[in-house]
Amino acid sequence: MKYGVYIHIPFCKGKCSYCSFYSIPVPTPHGEANALFDSYLRALLGDIASHKEFHGVSVDTVYFGGGTPTLFGHHRILTVLSALKSFFRITPDAEISIECNPSDLAENVLLPLVEAGINRVTVGIQTFHEHLRRRIGRIPAAPTESQLEQFMRIFEIVHGIDIMCGIPDATEKELARDIETVTSLKPEHISVYLLTVESNTPLAKTVFNDDSFLEFQRQQLEFAMDMLSHKGYVHYEISNYCLSGYHSRHNMKYWTFHPYLGFGAGAHGFTGLVRYYNTQKVEEYIQFQQYQKDVRSQRAAMAEFLMTGLRLIEGFSEVNFEETFHTKLPDSIVVCLNELVRENLLRCWHEGNTRRYCLTREGICISDYVIYRCVEPLL
Ligand code: SF4
């Protein structure tokens, strides 16, 4: 069995007002930031070294996420990578990804990472329109044309670009222009996230999450789906599109219930029925990298399997479920699935002796609701 490894780098230049991820602003005096990064690096290396039970396993995906991992400095990222190489068997074809902000698109930032084996770089743009960036309090600036050109010139990597739809006040024309700009670059991978207004964020104070806003978001999502498919991108997960063969192998592990290890503040790992959580607070993490173990009940694990499997456009099959849990889909779940099929929110078809379920286009637009109804009997 091959594992994925997730490394969390929880630092950002500031806090965007829609963001509910755990990240802390980097201290402004350069020296203070470097001291914090060095302490965090020591903690990460200690964390990786302490997980002896996994040392020696095969790892075929590594993902540096955040926060803004590139803020951490390429020499620290390289130190983490070489620690991973010394404790795990990183396969020669491993997918090694990093997230970055537009300001990091310069060749002098990316090339040392690429030379060290990073082969997939994703840049979070969200939108090119300044007034929409201000509307959601997006702190990193939009990339310039020359930054994007430099990024696309690095041939050895898979290029990923993240954009956002459903931003309050955005018009269809503005969304179309964002998608047009991104697709004209021909990145191998595009993520389109529907803006979620989380109640614990500053953005929630300025947006009414009422029916008309939800309808506006649904229209934006459908528009993005149609335009990207027209541009030749394969829609393979609710928020993810790629040119054929360039899906994120690391993220697929989350959606297909495969194991992964997580290192860093707030990171978690997953090994079947057991999930490991690390403390979220950076200061606590620097002092003790102790994981809490959360042993999932069979029901909770089944709910998780369905929640993640239905995120994929190809959905899940009964046989995958049976192979994972050595039992058939519970009757209570089959009843819910069939109800949702009748309501045209799920599609079901036969594949040999087994059945496969996936979201319909209508279901994708209200996926949280549909997925909740599927798993409700297990909660
Ligand atoms: S850069 Fe990304 S992770 Fe950092 S605050 Fe903004 S949205 Fe959140």
Distance between the termini: 29 Å
Query: If you compute it from the alpha carbons, what radius of gyration comes out, rounded to the nearest whole angstrom?
Result: 21 Å
Please name the CATH architecture of the largest domain. Answer: Alpha-Beta Barrel
Number of strands: 17
Bound molecules: iron/sulfur cluster
The class by helix and strand makeup works out as alpha/beta
pLDDT below 50 for ≥5 consecutive residues: which ranges? none
Number of helical elements: 14
Assign the CATH topology of the largest domain.
TIM Barrel
Based on Cα principal axes, name the global outline: globular
Portion in beta strands: 15-25%
Could you report the average pLDDT, rounded to the nearest whole number? 93
User: Into which percent range does the helicity of residues fall?
Assistant: 40-55%
| Adjacency order of strands in the biggest sheet | 9-10-8-7-6-5-4-1-11
CATH class of the largest domain: Alpha Beta
User: Main β-sheet, in a few words?
Assistant: 9 strands, mixed
In the residues, how many domains can be counted? 2
The H-level CATH homologous superfamily of the largest domain, spelled out, is Aldolase class I
Keywords, please?
379 residues; alpha/beta; TIM Barrel; Arc Repressor Mutant, subunit A; nine-stranded mixed sheet; three-stranded antiparallel sheet; 14 helices; 40% helix; 25% strand; globular; binds iron/sulfur cluster
